[in-house]
UniProtKB/TrEMBL annotation:
Any Pfam family matching the protein: Inositol_P
Species for this entry: Halomonas aquatica
Listed CDD domains: Bacterial_IMPase_like_1
Protein's recorded name: Histidinol-phosphatase
Keyword tags: Amino-acid biosynthesis, Histidine biosynthesis, Hydrolase, Magnesium, Metal-binding
Enzyme class at the top of the EC tree: hydrolase
Molecular function terms, GO-annotated: histidinol-phosphatase activity
Family stated for the protein in its record: Belongs to the inositol monophosphatase superfamily.
InterPro entries: His_9_proposed, Inositol_monoP_metal-BS, Inositol_monoP_superfamily, Inositol_monophosphatase-like
Pathway of action: Amino-acid biosynthesis; L-histidine biosynthesis; L-histidine from 5-phospho-alpha-D-ribose 1-diphosphate: step 8/9
Reactions this protein catalyses: L-histidinol phosphate + H2O = L-histidinol + phosphate
Length: 263
């Protein structure tokens, strides 16, 4: 049976997203564990020449290949957000890990269609690991389908957040309340945590103060692997979300986490 135009276009966009990841990976590794200058942005987060040059290269390829598409990137801003298709880019998610030589940073690539994330890539340059989620299809990890764990209760769950420093005082109390009920609590990982959740290794990731380029790519990856990802109120994530994110392996676990958040 000949594939439909929609299927062909979807496959082409997914292949292109992987091409973007392939472009970013060697550039990131060229700068990794090199003594490059680190600047501080207005929000006090670090940025390097690597962040900016990787995003610039990805943007140039998008503009050449899909000139009608919009782009929203962490380092170089937004253009044509009213387009049907908008790419959301984080060239180095986990810059703090990157500049300290910790090999758990990643590149995040999302494609929005009419504002909804339909394609997401988590690429981990130091390890060559790559998760890709496509709307309505099973998430793949290095070209093999992956699935979240079957954990349905917090008492059995392995919970992660990147750092307690990323929470305000009220948010940290909520995370402590949730994670104290889990079987294990660990810190670190940035976007890597969500890939590990999609592959069934951990069960809960909970964060706040994220930006759209931090979480839009995660949505198709988590959902395509059977998990659930929303804000802390249980609402779907979108460009205007408040940056409070919770991802879980199963709907049952997600319901318990949300109930605990609201307790």
């Amino acid at each position: 049976m000949k594939p439909s135009t929609e299927q062909t276009e979807s496959g082409g966009l997914a292949s292109f997203a992987c091409e973007l990841a392939d472009l970013a990976r060697p550039m990131a590794m060229e700068y990794f564990r090199r003594n490059i200058p680190v600047e501080q942005k207005a929000d006090l987060s670090p940025v390097t020449h690597a962040d900016r040059s990787i995003e610039a290269s990805m943007r140039a390829l998008i503009e050449k290949t899909y000139p009608g598409h919009g782009i929203f990137g962490e380092e170089h801003g937004a253009s044509h957000l009213d387009s049907k298709h908008v790419w959301v880019l984080d060239p180095i998610d986990g810059t703090k890990s990157f500049v300290t030589g910790m090999p758990i940073f990643g590149t995040l690539i999302a494609l929005l269609e009419d504002g909804r994330p339909v394609l997401g890539v988590i690429s981990i340059p130091p390890t060559g690991e790559l998760w890709i989620g496509r709307d309505g299809q099973a998430t793949q990890f290095n070209r093999v389908a992956c699935h979240t764990s079957t954990c349905t209760g917090l008492a059995d769950a392995l919970a992660y957040t990147t750092s307690p420093d990323n929470f305000d005082a009220a948010g940290l109390k909520v995370f402590d309340r949730v994670s104290s009920l889990s079987a294990m609590r660990r810190y670190g990982g940035d976007c890597y945590c969500y890939g590990l959740l999609a592959s069934g290794h951990i069960d809960v990731v909970m964060e706040m103060n994220l930006q759209p380029y931090d979480f839009m790519a995660l949505v198709p990856v988590i959902e395509g692997a059977g998990g659930v990802i929303t804000d802390w109120q249980g609402q779907r994530l979108h460009l205007g979300s408040d940056g409070y994110v919770v991802a879980t392996s199963t709907p049952e676990l997600h319901a318990e986490v949300l109930e605990t958040i609201g307790a």
